[in-house]
Write a structure and sequence with these properties.
The protein is of the alpha/beta class. Helices cover about 40% and strands about 20% of the residues. The protein has eight helices and eleven strands. The chain has a five-stranded parallel β-sheet, sandwiched between helices. Strands 6-7-8-9 form a four-stranded antiparallel β-sheet, with helices on one face. A hairpin with a 3-residue loop joins strand 10 and strand 11. Helix 2 runs parallel beside helix 3. The chain is elongated, with a radius of gyration of 18 Å. Keywords: DNA-binding, Phosphoprotein, Transcription, Transcription regulation, Two-component regulatory system. It comes from Thalassorhabdomicrobium marinisediminis. Pfam families: Response_reg, Trans_reg_C. This is DNA-binding response regulator.
Length: about 220
Amino acid sequence: MRILIVEDERKIAELVADVLTAEGMIPEIASDGEEGWFLGSTESYAAAILDIGLPKRDGLSVLRNWREEGLDLPVILLTARANWSERVEGIDAGADDYLGKPFQMEELIARLRALLRRASGQKTTTFEAGPLRMDLRQMRVSVDGKPLKVTPLEYRLLNYLMHQRGKVVSQEELIENVYFRDHEPDSNAVEVLIGRLRRKIGGGVIETRRGFGYLIAEDLS
């Protein structure tokens, strides 16, 4: 799951990126508003963490442009300012949530999880599909109640398919949201990864739609 971080304070951006990586997500950093606007407009992300006080183009301007372009990705605004009217302006501009600096990293992650859940129609941090259960808060996977050991790559793939439950996800989309950009997977990497997961969780959870991709069905029980 790819997350855009638009933040000009390098230490904060890198810290957020490290935490997101540990949470099984794929962060990408833009250090100014112009770059952030361009990436958000041309690349696919599950959500964005957007600072208001940015060089070249401020965060509110970036957000307004995204919304004018019809981009509906969830956005958390970050600001060091305490002015309540600016917060109202940010929400009116299309922000989904707001967090003031300094902030606790745990709160940022909790808010991000909530936005991603709402976007996928999920109400809790626990996803279930047949015998498979994923606890996103604890980052644990189990099958029939028994803990299952998965690699970070397997976890990211399951996480993305769970958030896209009921939708067919192409191999290209999985590659974008499961692999880091500096890693070039082999042409059959997704197929191999899916096969490995099926051996661990059973063959009835992840379906294959030949020529289209993979999905976890909504009505799987």
